Amino acid sequence: MSFFDDLPAFSPVQFFGVSSDCFYIRDRLKPEKEYLLPSTSDLLGESSFCDVYVGWNVEKIAFHFEVNVPFQKIMDDFRKGDSIEIFLDTRDLKTKGVISKFCHHFVFFPVLVQNFYGREVTRFRSDDMHPLCHPEDLVVIPHMNEDSYSLSIEIPSHCLYGYDPLSFSRIGFTYRVNRFGALPQHFAVSSEEYVIEQHPAAWGTLKLQKE
Questions:
Q1: Fewer CB near the last or first residue (10 Å), C or N of the chain?
Q2: pTM recorded for the entire structure
Q3: 190 SS3 class
Q4: Which residues lie below 8 Å from residue 118, measured CB to CB, with a gap of 6+?
Q5: Is 125 helix (H, G, I), strand (E, B) or coil?
Q6: Nearest-CA neighbor of 121 among 74, 93, 80, 87?
Q7: Residue 189: helix, strand or coil by DSSP?
Q8: What pLDDT does residue 17 have?
Q9: Which DSSP category does 58 fall into?
Q10: Which CATH number does the domain 17-205 belong to among 2.40.10.270, 2.60.40.1190, 1.20.1270.10, 1.20.1260.10?
Q11: Over the chain (211 residues), what is each successive 10-residue block's mean pLDDT?
């Protein structure tokens, strides 16, 4: 066995940073072309089943997820059922190898779970932390069809520690769209290669474009 036999399989995105423009919104995010994130599923060697839109203003970051497979089931371990995870680093600290107070991990559902559609579940590994936001502060509008579902999500600025888009025009970002009985879809980095929750330096970047 050679040295190279012991190396893991690397995906192309590990050799360059993935970034995308994120455009300003005046009010609510609409699922229009300019807000559509590029898919990195081909680079990650996974199937694409969800279209993701994102926009920002000083009051919030907004997302719209169009999941093109039917809703099936929620699980106690939300990663094993239908759910959407959003990871944000309000300072895009690519040189910091651990979760900092600027990092956020949210999970959202297409149905009510413990009376809420979403919550912050960030787990910190040091004293460098922020208070978790209240679930009732997250704005979530679900829409269910027979063969698909969508979630419109707004995360207010007061739920994002360090969010100052007028001074910091880049934020770290990735997502994981989970589905019951099948593999998830990611942006920029796959959980097959990283424990996403613990490696913000591997997340992609959203470049906040002014008006």
A1: N
A2: 0.92
A3: coil
A4: 106, 107, 108, 109, 135, 138, 140, 153
A5: coil
A6: 87
A7: coil
A8: 74
A9: T
A10: 2.60.40.1190
A11: 41 64 97 96 94 98 98 97 98 87 98 97 90 97 97 98 97 98 96 90 95 75
